[in-house]
Specification:
The complex is a heterodimer of chains A (152) and B (109). Chain A contains 3 helices and 9 strands. Chain A has 152 residues and is an alpha+beta fold. Chain A has one domain: SoxY domain (Immunoglobulin-like, Sandwich), CATH 2.60.40. In chain A, the strands form 2 sheets. In chain A, strands 1, 3, 5, 6, 8 and 9 form a 6-stranded mixed sheet that branches. In chain A, strands 2-4-7 form a 3-stranded antiparallel sheet, with no helix packed on it. In chain A, strand 5 and strand 6 form a beta hairpin. The longest helix of chain A has 15 residues. Chain B is mainly beta and 109 residues long. Chain B has one domain: Immunoglobulins (Immunoglobulin-like, Sandwich). Chain B is elongated. Chain B starts with 6 loop residues before the first strand and ends with a strand. Classes of the chains: A alpha+beta (152), B mainly beta (109). The interface between A and B is large, with 40 and 34 residues.
């Protein structure tokens, strides 16, 4: 949880938002820790995921937090006996941690998905994969955001 | 609300059984987070495409739940295994229950 805005940073970011989007954003909710632990706990049922098998492809530095390309893939044979069921994407620095959940099955062939996401500030993005045998794997990457996805 | 038609691209239109097909889709939608406020300080109500599904010949091959952290005009790319010929139907469901549907087809030999 790397969200320690001091007063000045908040002001600077707020000014940036006002300029780019003509609307303010509720920073009170973005400052504190968001609901990431609850969301992960709900997804895994309290189980601790193992690191590995999940590959998260995000830029190290995102110029525009409004659209950050993100690809997630999971190593799996994707057969009827052994496949990835779901992949949860969460971000610890957004007002709310949930980003997306992808549902796969044996007919997906390859457990891979790509979309574009919003990141309010520099933060960690985590992908957690749920296998059909009930095990969990995860990976985390930090994305540095130059302009936050706050103006919409 | 009338929305623009989604843009859908399959990397192959004809495939052998077992081939992996890549689907790219883009739909125009505001994806309003419900976090923003207008100039009067009123919260702009949330409007999100919260569910996406893809069926091939009526069988679901991939689906996704989107949160407000998915960018406006959501883009989605995924793969599926070619099993049988038929329509490839992509459906996005809005918070208000309305649907955006796009369709392509695949021929499997």
């Amino acid at each position: 949880m790397k969200l320690n805005f001091d007063r000045r940073q908040v002001l600077v970011l707020g000014a940036g938002c006002a300029l780019t989007g003509l609307v303010g954003v509720d920073f009170a909710s973005a400052q504190g820790k968001n609901d990431i632990n609850e969301v992960i706990g709900k997804f895994t049922g309290g189980k601790a995921p193992t690191m590995g098998r999940v590959k998260l492809d995000v830029p190290e530095i995102a110029e525009n937090g409004n659209t950050v390309p993100m690809t997630v893939s999971v190593e799996s044979p994707m057969t009827a006996q052994n496949y990835v069921q779901e992949v949860l994407i969460v971000a610890d620095g957004n007002p709310r941690s949930g980003v997306a959940t992808f549902h796969f099955g044996p007919s997906t062939g390859i457990a891979e998905a790509n979309t574009r996401i919003r990141l309010a500030s520099t933060q960690n993005v985590t992908a957690i994969a749920k296998m059909n045998d009930g095990s969990f794997f995860s990976t985390t990457k930090e994305v540095k955001v130059t302009i936050g996805g706050c103006g919409g | 609300m009338a929305e623009a038609k989604p843009r859908i691209k399959l990397d192959k239109k004809e495939a052998k059984k077992g081939d992996i097909i890549e689907v790219k889709a883009l739909v125009s939608h505001i994806m309003e987070t419900g976090q923003r406020k207008d100039r009067e300080g009123k919260v702009i109500p949330r409007k999100i495409l919260n569910k996406f599904t893809c069926t091939v010949n009526g069988k679901e091959v991939f689906s996704a739940d989107f949160e407000p952290a998915v960018s406006a005009n959501p883009y989605i790319q995924f793969k599926f295994k070619a099993e049988e010929s038929g329509p490839v139907v992509l459906t996005w469901i809005d918070d208000d229950g309305s649907k955006i549907v796009g369709e392509d087809s695949i021929k499997v030999s």
